[in-house]
Amino acid sequence: MKASPDRIIIFDTTLRDGEQSPGASMDVHEKVLVAKQLEILGVDKIEAGFPVSSPGDFDAVQAVAGEVHKPIVIGLCRTREDDIHTAWNAVKHAARPGLHTFIATSDIHLQYKLRMSKDEVLASVRNSVGICHELSPSVEFSAEDATRSDWDFLVDVFSAAIEAGADTINVPDTVGYTNPHEFYNLVSYLRKNVSGIENVTVSVHCHNDLGLATSNSLSAVQAGARQIECTINGIGERAGNTSLEEAVMIFNVRKDLYNLYTGIDTTQIYPTSRLVSRITGIPVQPNKAIVGANAFAHEAGIHQDGYLKERSTYEIMTPEAVGIGKSHLVLGKHSGKHALGKRLEFLGYHLSEQEILKVFNRFKEISDRKKEIYDADIEAIVLEEIYRVPDKYELKHINVNSGTVAVPTATVQLVVDNETILEAGFGNGPVDALYKTIIRMTGFNAELKRFSVSSITGGTDAQGEVTVELMDRDMVSTGQGSDPDILVAAAKALINAMNRMEFLKTKRLTDTPHL
Fold first, then answer.
1. Does the 393-507 domain belong in CATH 3.40.50.2300?
2. What tens digit of pLDDT does each residue of 360-370 get?
């Protein structure tokens, strides 16, 4: 896919690099749901995963390839023949399949990780890209740790990749090491010296270890790159990746400076951000650019005065431009299944009749306890009832007693591997009693690293949302639960994290790539 001079290709790697955030692992259904939303958002390419890493990841990539039609669906692979063929088998039935192969090029990686000479790396690039070119109509090659590599060696590597059939060459800042001025010079140097580079798209993949991922990507664009690899909410390995919403809205707001455009429907940015946050369990920080809760808040008196007189005094883009403000009260306890189904379609959820019925039953249960149902409430129901990992542990009932003169006591009924268990226990508070009882019942061995509570919507009858993070040795699992009763939400969150941990153990990546 060759970019036009004024068009930026958006390569989304939320499903691959984004999933490498601790605790952010997604199952097949969750990856398909996100991929469908990315298609609605308008991304050009979806990197769906690393198929050779596990049977679960292969299945997820294959499922995404079968469900989306407009973007190129890409499988990642190392410069190894078995990797390449596995990746191709996962994406080959996509409407627009693609392969992305990579090998490290920095001296430190060559010496300590690959233990290969530069000549061996060049031979590997020629062979692997050639195989990819024979199989796939779209081939991207990445030089891992490019920003710490010898520039002249990069010229040789990229020239070899283009000669072998790559239509996109990617320059990754794998460890977030570079800065905008340095990166501009590197991309400029490559564009002047790599043979055949004028016939391919130059791509960049920046990490945010020093907080410069978006700035570095923009510098590369100014030097001639025309593809940005990014993730929703900037999630990803370590400190994350270039944030899609930041990069896209910079081009949207500053047309005067860049005179460039993307194919993104910006009104879908906020819904996509919410979906990814809910599925991964990674909350968006309130002051996050574009999609944070405070991104369009004006608290200072002087700001409020100016804003009320003229929005543009303190607002360079409107919340409506990124899809904020679309959510409004639409349903209540007297709403029917048909109305709920229509609202689900509007929100981007295309469910079967059976799934709609399942959501509707939960919706009616909540509407009996909560007068007003908002879009955020509906999203929480869908993600809790439909898109979740398989249940080893299922919560049936809880009853918690607590107060200023009572010893906090929790009675819990669970189904564990199809066996019903009922127990009670004590704690220092209601949540402590609840969690200690559940952990004792299941024998689950993990450390609770994070427990946070938020309100999905406003009002004292709002659904509470609890997020927990469990750690078992080096494995992290995040779980979420929502309910008008915050203790029920807390129990659901813990059970969800436990189920995700069990799921992670079955699909754990054996050789995770770091681009």
1. no
2. 988 888 887 76
